[in-house]
Amino acid sequence: MTVLDFDVLTNSSGEWLKGVGPESDVVVSSRIRLARNLDRFPFPPQTTDAIRGEVEAMLRGPVAEVLPLGSMGYVRIDPLETLDRQFLVERQLISREHSEAKGPRGAGIGPHESMSLMVNEEDHLRMQVLRSGLALDECWQEINRVDDALQQQVNFAFNEEFGYLTSCPTNVGTGMRVSVMLHLPALVMTKEIQKVFQSMHKMSLAVRGLYGEGSQAMGDFYQISNQMTLGKSEQQIIKSMQQVIPDVLEYERRTRREMVKENRPKLHDKVSRALGILQSARTITSEETMHLLSSLRLGINLGLIDGIEIPTINELFIHTQPAHLQKLSGSPMESSDRNAARASHIRSRLVPAEPTPNEE
Amino acid sequence: MINRVAGRGRGEIPRLLAKVTQGDDMKKCMQCTKPATLHITEIQLGQAQVVHLCETCAQKYLSSVEVGGTPSMDIDDDDESGIEVDADGAALEAVEAEEESTTAACTGCGITFKQFRSIGRLGCPQCYTSFHDDLLSLLESIHQDTQHVGKCPPQTSANTVRHHELMRLRSELKSFVERENYEEAARIRDQIQTIESQTAVSEDAHG
Questions:
Q1: What are B74-85's pLDDT values in tens digits?
Q2: H or E stretch including A127?
Q3: Cβ–Cβ of A170/B84 closer than 8 Å?
Q4: Any residues with CB less than 8 A from the CB of B127 and at least 6 apart, and which?
Q5: pTM, whole model, 2 decimals?
Q6: Which of A165, B143, B175, B194 is the most buried (most CB within 10 A)?
């Protein structure tokens, strides 16, 4: 069984973060998640630790075996410290639910952090594959392969009418959740983002703001995912998403172009100020960081900022989160110390960046 | 969240957060097992439903609106919890009127359908058989279609796989026709006919 080397993890970042996959000016990442349960065992949420222990013991071997070469391996989550679990949540290697669940549980972590196989989350098995940019077919190929490999070794609960059986009826059938994470700063600035919500809802797709606290979505990041998992095949669900997303991308891109055409100086100034604050601030909250990093990301995509690439911005979103900061500094920190550490880390990563010269 | 997530004809009718009250009156949170200290009354289509949540779940629930989000980068689908409560809401309407036997217990794990509705999670795979009829209307309100047409485990019989394929193709045919994409519809219909004739041949051979 693997012991996670947090030092190594802390200082690296997943391939899906570093990568700049297709459509990455707007699409940050694609994700496919499958839910599976062992036949004849109670579902994790409402059962005993003894049962969870049995399930964990049954699944840890097969999970470790199906992980691709170069994987980090299978890791037990229950003995980890809170900070370490929080770190894994921030890194998107396990879900918050998994971090806070009770009883024996673990996660198999694939190479480059793009695959995570969680044992005893809300279902016995929650598998996920992440890719940078718009890459749903690749996600599906990989996760399908892993699902097939596992089904050679264990029997999943399944019935011919309702498909793969899950703890929550919202997941039954394919057990599949397909999502893309989009960066939509232009649509937010022009307040057209509401139209995106409306058209997604008409197609039964859920839109969720990320990085928000309270009722405000911060950082202009939105996750679009399917709501229905039963009654359509996996390919149909993926295809519906692939048919809908390009329109959203084009809408965002067109809005960005219009904004640049109408008022490049204003945009240039907004982005430069964001860079200026991030490069100089001595203390900064995560809320402000999200706002400014979002402007920066837009600025890079529009060619208004030199000396820094999107992967660095992606990394900063993760490395400025609370558990990451504490791991990077090597010690637990209270909020005000974290704000200072955050500012310091950001300054060090943004040294080479500068606004592009004005065009006159 | 209730209407927007469910879609399905309820469209964009906004929910009204009628009131949020606090109090420890021994109710359990509908999404976890902690005590519920917040009681949110949702008014939808003229009907009021009360959602009982603990503080943590209430924060998640209240911030899971269209423009909202969760406090940090989560890979999990917190929106599912929202759907659950919605599904419960929908179940309340669909099932209440029929006075289903909410006291029957699952043959596998012993929970009752009523317990499932208050927790939002089923107990074991057997629940899907034990509560088949009650679950059917709930599943319909969540997914519209209730027949699985996706991937099957390797040990599934060839007949079942073919059967699923046919059902999937028929539903695709229907949606192409609805959207007046007759070219695609014809292509799908040909696929269906091929499979059906193969089935007939093998049935003859065994008949």
A1: 444 444 433 333
A2: strand A125-132
A3: yes
A4: B106, B108, B109, B111, B116, B135
A5: 0.79
A6: A165
